[in-house]
Structures are given as C-alpha cells and as structure tokens.
C-alpha cells in the first residue's frame, strides 16, 4: 500500500476517528487515501485556525486525539495560534503537515520554509517521515508522544513518502496512563490538611476539574476545612447540580491576591502556580500573598484525580457527603443587554448536558458567575490567550459530541479572527448556537488603556480599540457562511432567539447587541 | 521620553508613515505613543494575516517599509503566511511584536512562547529590545536590516522597555543601494548575446519588472535577438502601452519546459532559476531543457535595472527603439462567466494606473493573458504561494496609493482566508474593487487530483475540494464587514457592476459567479 494509506490505517487502528483539514497539493496523497482507507472522517475548514482550534475542542471532549491536515509551513503557521491554546490546554492531537517531495526540498520552491522552527514552539514532538515504509511507524511515534505528553505532536510528511508504494501499517502504541503521584507526597499533603497550620486552598486545574475531581476535592475540604478554587481559564470544567460550585481565580493579579488572602497554603492539584496573565508595573509575576506557601499534590502531568481519591482516603473524607452548595437562580433578563444578562439568558435556556465554549473575553467572566444556576454542562475556555479559539473549538466539540448542544459565548473581536468556522458548522450540520457579545470594541484593550493611566485616549489610541466604524453585521456574516441568524437587543429578544435556536437543528448565530 | 515614543520618533524620522496593527495588552505603550508622537498612521485590521499582507502590498507600491504591530507569539503567528509571501517578494517591513515585560518573561505566562523560533523562518533579521534607552537604536538596526536585505525584519519589544522613561531617538540609517553588478559579468553576458551561441532568453524578475527594466530588456533583445520572459508570480510588474508585452513562465513544470524549448541560454535578471512549484513524479525540480545553460546577469539582490542599462550600452542597444508589441483587444464578455471573461471585463473597465492584485489561483492566469489590452497598470501577485494575500495586499496598496484605483482579482477559496480585510477597506474608505471568482471549489486541488491520476475522486476526496455545500454568499459577507456589494452571473452584469464600482468612492465587492 501507499505510505499515505499505511499512515491512515495506523491512525484508524489507533482509534483516531476525525481529521480536520485544509489540504493543498502536497497533501493530495492523503486526500486520496481517505477514500481508500475508510475510518477517519475528514472535516474541511476554510482556514487553518479553524482546523487546529476544532481539533483542540474535539480532543477536550473525547480525550481522543484528532488529526489535522495542513499545507506546508504557511498553512501550518495559520494554525499556530490555536495550537498555542491547545498546548496550554494539554490537548493531544496529531498535526500532519504535507511537505514537498523529499527530492524537491533542496530546490527551495516558493512554499518551502523551515517548518520545524515554526512547529517546535507549539508541539511537544516534531518529526519527519523518512520513507514510505517507515511513515506509519513515524505516525505511531507521534501518536505515542501526543498521548504521553498531552501536547500536540507534529509529523512532517513528504509528499513522495505518501504517494509511493511500500507502506506498512505500524503497531499501535497503547495509551499511556498519567503518572501516579507518590504516596509520600499524598501523605505530606494529608498531614498539612490535618495539622493546624492555617487555612488551605486546593487549586484545581486540568483534568482535576472533572465531576469526580471537584466532588472529591469538595469532600476533602468539607472534612479538613479550607476551600476548593479553580484555575483561571480551565481547558474543561464540569458543572451541574451534583457538583459543588467552586470559585475561580480572577484575571487581574490584584484580584488574584485578594482571592488568596487568608490562606496559609495553596495546594496545586493539576494546576500551575497562579501567574499574572501580563506583567503590570508594581505587580509581581506570581500574585501570591507573602505568607502563602505553595505545595503540590499533583502536577499538570500527573493523575490528579487518583491523587485526590488517595488524599480523600488519607484524610478520612472518602465517605463524607459531597457538600451541597446553594444553587443560584438566574433572573430572566429584560430590556437592554449586558454581559450578565446575556449569560443569564444562556443559563435559562441551555439544554441539559450542553457544552459551553466561552470566549467572551471582556464579557467572559459573566458566564461562570452564574453557571451554577445552569443545568449540567461542560465549559471550555481559552487556555492560552490566543484569541479566535471559540468558534473553532465549538465546531470541534460539536463534531465530538453530536448528541449534545454546543453554545458558544463569544466576544466579537475574537470572533472576527476565525469567523470562517461558521461554514464548517453549516456544512456538517452541527448543533452550535453562537451568541456574539457585540460590543463593537476591543473591551479588554480599553480596560488596559485605563489601567495604564490613559483616562482619555487620543484619537489614534481610541481608533485601535474601536470596532464601531463600521460595526460588523454578524447576521449578514452568518448568512454569508450559510448559518441562520438573528439579532437581539433586549433580554426578551435574546431569550426568544435562544429558544428558537435550541429548538431547531443545525447551527445558529445570535448577535447580542451590547 | 518613553521607550515607545523614542521608537516611533525614530520610525518617523526614517520615513515610516504607516503601521498596520492588531495590538493587544503588551502593545498598549505603543498604542498610547501613536498620539504622543504623531507621524505614523496606525491602521487597524481584524486579524494579523491582514496586517502583514497589507504591509507587503504597501511596500511593494511605495518601496518604503511599513511597520506592523503584532501581539506576542500567537498574534505574530497569524501573520506568518503573508510574511512568507513578503519574504519571497523581497519586501521590506518592520514587525514590532509586543512581548511580556522583561521581568515577567521567565514566569511563562499563558501567552508566552518562543517568538524567535516563529519569527526566523520569515524574517531576515530578528532582534529584541534590551532597555528603554536602547530600543530606538534597536529599531534603527531593524530598519537598516530590512532595507539592506529587502526582507521583513522583526523586533521583539518588551512592554517595560516601551512604557518606561529613558528612551532616546536614534540616528536613522541611510537607505542602502542595491549592490551593483560587476562589469565583467555584464561584459560576459554581452559577449554571450553577441556570439552566435544560439537563442537567449532574458528572464526578468523582482524589480527588473519596472517599466524601465522591461523596456531596456526589450531593446536589448530587439538588437541581439532572443526573447524577454517574466518570472512566474512577480511581486510587481508594470504594464501599459509604452511597455512591450512579455511572456510569463507558466505554472506546471511540463509547461515551463515547453516554454523554454529552443533557447540555448537563459539569463537571469533579478530572477531565480525557474523551480517547479511542487515536485511531481517524473518531473525535475528545475524544469529546464537539458541543453539550456543558465547564466546570471543580476541576482535577486543586485541592481538589475542598472545592469540592464549597462548591458544595453555594451550591446549597442541603448539607443534602439523600444519594440512595439501588438496590443490585443479585449472582447466585451456576454453570457455566463468564465475566468477569461471576468479578466476581459476587468481590463475593459479598469481606470488608468490601476493596481491589480491578482490572487486568482485557478482563474489567475486569465488576467495576465489579456492584461496587455488594459490601460497602464501595476500587477501584484502571490509570490510565495501562501493563500490569503490578495485582499490584504489590495488593502495595503490602496493605503499606499490613495489616488489609484485598486482591483483585486480574487479566488474564492483564498479570499475565505483573510476576508476580514474588507473591514479595513470599509473603515479607511479605500478604493478597492474586489472581484471574487466564485467557482465554489478549490479548483487547483481538483486539477492536482487529476494530475495524480484520480479521474473520479471518491466522496471523501471530493468533499475536500468542494466549497459548494453551502456555497458562500460573498455579497452577504461584504455587507457583514460594511462593504457595498453586488453579484454578477453574466458578462453584461459584470461590466455594469465594475463600472458602478469604479464610479463610486470607497470599496466594493462583486461576486462573479462561475
């Protein structure tokens, strides 16, 4: 069989089911092979930022890596921003970059570039095919790396290695379990919680934010005292009536400092030490009160949920009841919209087991603030700060979970980066409801200008934060990409639009005018 | 003054007039400085592919580098594809990437990444600011590099170096002239042309495609025999009644081979040796007949126009009349559209001294085929093969030349990459007429599948080349970004739409349905 066919056969055997793609000429052998070796569903996107963001959203929901198919260095480069987010989310995926035929590479043809240099900053593993016969093995190596590292892996596949005969499927590596946390480490944290050494917060991040992780952590603090906190920008967090509501760390470092006041210890459970998103004058990089000691139960690689189970045993809280937290009520919004009323309208109308992809940016904090009032759901957020992840990740999540509604709570400025995702949503008939928080500005930049002491920006600075001239017509844009749409300027209109969108199949876009 | 102000003062003194920008928090000090140090016009774009493509189009038209302002690694990464094209076009520009404050960099905040690794493949020079006091000098170094190398230069500017006092404007380096070609080399080529060693083609590329370069080359071959050829995908080529029409090298290598049949020598004049865009089975990387000898008059760095002048002197053709070539007539198209009839409609309606940005891809060859019939104009093409350059480059060309009409002959698949450029066209009131060749498919991929022997693609392969389900509504998309639009399905409708677009100020989009 051809190298391309051996690669796809190996991918299928490994359980890879989806390839998000924007192919070019060097990927033609793989495009052809999709028909010869069925098993991997190819999903086309109009630009590579959609491809990689969709693969991120897909794997966050399934735990199974998707493939991406990208065209040489420049095509890959268009996907880097969302690969950056995937790297921060610890998302497995396998990027296949079609490269010039091996014998054509020295010719420095127009599309040639240093692909490795582009790929390394966002890949835990970068490799190249070396022959048709070895290509499947090299794919298997990428697969092993992405599962082991939980980072994107990138395989640069020369066109001739793909189109030539001589390929042989390779053995599929077994999925590697997360490394376990050492018993002594668990005992040490158990001792810390038992001893009267002050108030402790468990900071949950990564896969510790599963339903079981949150419940187990809540049991522990119900027994030992302290509080469960959530990292800012989780890759994925579960919420619902059976899962205690927990506080998230805020965005600005002075607010993080305030959140951590009164604690003596911060125990990291699959989370990193809180770091300021940006450096601000007079603020530290790590916004921690001076007397706060940071300890680690499980680092971001380790099996944090198993460590929590063991810690629950060690602290005698395994059999404790999961504390119930008061469930807030969302109020039906009326009149002109605010970020909070948009979030309330979403919460009041969202179907059970929805997936909420939150790239609200300056409006984004409104959703987690009221999310405990919502039916059981999963929230995905922007982990790396590279904007334009929301619409692609919603697309990938909908491919992953066709039986769940996907709601994309989406800032307008960020939406404008990867609006092309709407086309894939229309094409695949995905049940994504996009709610554009249309404030017609880069609200976060306005806030940052104020923080920098610029109370009244001059004309040039003001023009860099305004999206108002002209303001974008999101309903027209949705029509352009084949997605039904509506506009809502009041709470009542938004509730009606959301109910309609959820009642009908396929994608919808609602422009919520702020 | 602040570091940011010293940088802008130095840019202004150097003659930099425009900064295409998509700033974030780390660029706030420069956003602020646009008001404090007037002189550089900041032009906002909705995504970074538009920013870098616009800077490319701008500098191709002015010869003066624009600045770009980009947000950390991921923001820069979104601009890489069009920087790849700019690198292949030998376009000077200075990318300023706002980086985390110097003391915050070790904290590995969410947006941190290896910016150098991303920047090197598309930059001739990459540097970092080291202090507020030295930032302007580091900018001057980037400026010297971009003018000297005629490649993008990238300066990574730490936020604290920009916001802190202590900046001092730096001396502005003088523009460096292109290195001259050696007299002996000119004499050798003159001897070649004089001696009876067979037919010679002068292959013009880069800045040799100025009006003077083409005229001088045409004078030479009128005297010595031979032919003037044009490289495929020139960064910029001038055409008009006083400029002889010259043949372009075709796209596929077998066609290049045929074009070069019958020549004994190929003399490179600011052009590279012809290289196959992709490697194909049974085709060489360099599609040159076996008996063709390649010689160089001027390489891509050297002063090719001056070398042509000297060659004209040496061959006694300096005073020769510029040969007049027959000017074809474009026929007014009627009935259903084809790529050729779209090109004819453009040619028949285009204002004098228009700038035609050609990213027609599978329709693209139709324009140069009839362009000799058009009034005097400049054509810009996609030099690097990274698609999505057309709309951004048209935007930048219109900023560069407000008194010239810009026409963007644009494939639909490529347009979908950077359609966000329309918003900047609307915002700045730019006189760009975009003609979308809406064939609702990746036509070039269909052609490549056929070349690969796939006469009847299977369902999966066919779905990777089709943009038809749903087909995009380009008029709706234009409305979404604030650009007036129309749709034309026949030659008559297209002529009317083009006349209307040219008669009215500001941008227009015409969906030409194929």
TrEMBL record, chains A, B:
Domain Thiamine pyrophosphate enzyme TPP-binding: residue ranges: 373-511
Species annotation: Saccharopolyspora elongata
Keyword annotations from UniProtKB, A to Z: Thiamine pyrophosphate
Domain Thiamine pyrophosphate enzyme N-terminal TPP-binding: 1-106
This protein's name: Acetolactate synthase large subunit
Classification via CDD domains: TPP_BFDC, TPP_PYR_POX_like
Family: Belongs to the TPP enzyme family.
Gene3D superfamilies xref list: 3.40.50.970
One example GO MF annotation: acetolactate synthase activity
InterPro entries: THDP-binding, Thiamin_PyroP_enz_TPP-bd_dom, TPP_enz, TPP_enzyme_TPP-bd
The keyword rRNA processing is annotated on this UniProt entry: no
Alphabetized Pfam families for the sequence: TPP_enzyme_C, TPP_enzyme_N
SUPFAM superfamilies tied to this protein: Thiamin diphosphate-binding fold (THDP-binding)
Superkingdom, natural source: Bacteria
Keyword 4Fe-4S in annotation: no
């Amino acid at each position: 069989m051809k190298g391309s066919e051996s690669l796809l056969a190996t991918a299928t055997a490994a359980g890879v089911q989806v390839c998000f793609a924007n192919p070019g000429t060097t990927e033609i052998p793989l495009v052809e092979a999709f028909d010869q070796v069925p098993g991997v569903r190819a999903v086309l996107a109009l630009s590579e930022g959609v491809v990689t963001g969709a693969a991120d959203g897909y794997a966050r929901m399934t735990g199974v890596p998707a493939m991406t198919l990208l065209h040489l260095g420049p095509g890959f480069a268009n996907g880097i921003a969302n690969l950056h987010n995937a790297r921060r989310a610890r998302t497995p995926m396998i990027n296949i970059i079609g490269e010039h035929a091996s014998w054509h590479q020295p010719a420095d043809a127009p599309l040639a570039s240093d692909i490795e240099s582009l790929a390394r900053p966002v890949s835990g593993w970068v490799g190249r095919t070396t022959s048709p016969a070895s290509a499947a093995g090299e794919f298997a190596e990428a697969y092993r790396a992405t599962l082991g590292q939980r980072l994107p892996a990138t395989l640069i596949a020369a066109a001739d290695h793909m189109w030539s005969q001589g390929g042989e499927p390779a053995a599929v590596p077994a999925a590697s379990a997360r490394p376990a946390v050492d018993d002594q480490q668990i005992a040490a944290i158990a001792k810390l919680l038992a001893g009267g050494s002050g108030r402790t917060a468990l900071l949950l991040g990564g896969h510790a934010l599963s339903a079981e992780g949150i419940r187990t952590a809540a049991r522990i603090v119900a027994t030992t005292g302290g509080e469960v906190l959530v990292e800012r920008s989780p890759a994925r967090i579960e919420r619902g009536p059976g899962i205690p509501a927990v506080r998230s760390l805020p965005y600005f470092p002075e607010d993080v400092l305030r959140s951590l006041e009164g604690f003596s210890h911060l125990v990291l459970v699959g989370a990193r030490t809180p770091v300021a998103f940006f450096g601000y004058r007079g603020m530290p990089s790590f916004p921690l009160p001076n007397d706060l000691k940071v300890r680690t139960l499980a680092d971001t690689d380790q099996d944090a949920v198993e460590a929590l189970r063991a810690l629950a045993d060690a602290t005698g809280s395994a059999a404790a009841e999961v504390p119930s937290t008061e469930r807030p009520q969302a109020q039906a919004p009326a009149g002109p919209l605010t970020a909070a009323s948009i979030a309330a309208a979403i919460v009041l109308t969202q179907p059970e087991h929805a997936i909420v992809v939150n790239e609200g940016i300056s409006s984004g904090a409104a959703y987690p603030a009221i999310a405990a009032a919502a039916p059981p759901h999963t929230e995905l957020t922007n982990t790396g700060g590279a904007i334009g992840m929301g619409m692609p990740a919603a697309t990938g999540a909908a491919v992953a979970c066709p039986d769940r509604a996907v709601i994309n709570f989406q800032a307008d400025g960020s939406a404008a980066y990867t609006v092309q995702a709407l086309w894939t949503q229309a094409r695949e008939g995905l049940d994504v409801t996009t709610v554009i928080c249309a404030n017609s500005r880069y609200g976060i930049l306005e806030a940052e200008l104020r923080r920098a002491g610029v109370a009244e920006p001059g004309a040039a600075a003001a023009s860099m934060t305004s999206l108002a001239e002209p303001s974008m017509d999101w309903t027209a844009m949705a029509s352009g990409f084949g997605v039904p749409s509506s506009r809502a300027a009041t709470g009542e209109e938004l509730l009606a639009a959301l109910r309609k969108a959820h009642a009908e199949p396929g994608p919808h876009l609602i422009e919520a005018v702020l």
